Amino acid sequence: MITISLCMIVKDEEHTIDACLRSVQDIVDEINIVDTGSQDRTSEICRKYTDRIFPFTWIDHFAEARNYAFDQATKEYILWLDADDVFEEEDARKLKELKHSLEPHYQSVSMIYNVGFDGHGNVTLSYRRNRLVKRSAGFRWVGAVHEYLAVAGPIYHADIAVTHKHKHLKAGNPRRNLEIYEKQIAQGHSLTPRDQYYYANELRDNGLYQQAAENYQLFLDTNACWDEDAIAACDKMASCYETLGQKELSVEAGLKSLKYDSPRAELCCRMGRYHMERNEVDKAARWYTLATEIKRPETMGFFQDAYWTWVPHIQLCICYYKLGDYVRSYEHNEKAAEYIPSDPSVLHNRKLLNDLLGNSQTVTKEES
Questions:
Q1: Inter-residue contact 303 to 269 (CB < 8 Å)
Q2: What is the mean pLDDT of each run of 10 residues along the chain (368 residues)?
Q3: What is the pTM assigned to this prediction?
Q4: Domains identified in the chain and CATH numbers
């Protein structure tokens, strides 16, 4: 059985840290907390679970803080989490089993990261991250902002999810990450292609949509993009132009993703929405149908899960309703209901279509 050190960086996490540590305390063999300057009860709460709490002076560099946390580990493997992450009960059970079954040649274990949810509890955004790494491999974090763990060697892709539970919005500067990038640029530092992508993300998150779109294009122009980041950049650039009301540019940006891979469900739904807005229902239906037929690729990239599950079906329900095919409209509404059974639109559609199909059947009987 392997042993695990949990390594975390925290600051003012009193609203979330207890749930995080409680979910993993019976799994890990050591907990290391690096506090970058908390002013609340974070350290007090952490001391219920560990006395290995280390202060770290914040220097506007996330990788430096995470590497310092990794330096405190003493066990065979290192697990990292953020303070608002938890292992749900089933995933905690799977991680306990993995401690007994992980083969020693694996240098890293990737896990699913569920970061977005709808009102029904369905995952809306997920991707994979390298979560558990062999300490002897000496892997290090890279990047001042949106840091990543540079790993190599055999990776085991586990069927284990880490769930993001952001229950509390902390006070602070929402422009912090953007300002770190701008400070680096002002100091003459060149952004790597990856930093260029995340800089564009920060511009977008701060409502600077035109600048964000321009920087996504600069990222793509480097021709040094990981394909998954390039696909995401095309989708986010399309969203920026859509927010700006520039629909044609939005479509052009979305279609650029086809340079990097076959169509993804996110693009298909975007194209379906574009044609629906132009009242080109047949074309919209073809795009939404394609979204239901695509197999989700096994990659480390980002996926907006709603577009791979219920969204195309609810849109096909609308398409076929407009085309007068109430049977197929009903069928797709019921497929959407498998994911969002209590959604008001699903319930409304079901009643409407049941009434229409009932009337249609009555007419048929009378005519016969």
A1: no
A2: 98 96 98 97 98 96 97 98 97 98 97 90 90 98 92 96 76 79 90 93 96 97 93 97 97 97 97 97 98 92 92 98 97 97 95 86 32
A3: 0.77
A4: 4-164 (3.90.550.10), 173-261 (1.25.40.10), 263-368 (1.25.40.10)
In angstroms, rounded to a whole number, what is the distance separating the alpha carbons of residues 262 and 290?
11
In contact, 109 and 135? CB cutoff 8 Å: no
Written as one letter, the residue type at 51 is: D
> What's the pLDDT score for residue 167?
59
The position carrying tokens 């770190």 is 180
Angle (nearest 5°) at CA 356 between 270 and 345: 40
Cα separation, 38 vs 122, in Å, equals 33
Tokens of 136: 């002897």
* Residue 341 CA: distances (Å) to CA of 212, 304, 314: 37, 19, 12
* φ, ψ (nearest 5 deg) of residue 202: -65, -40
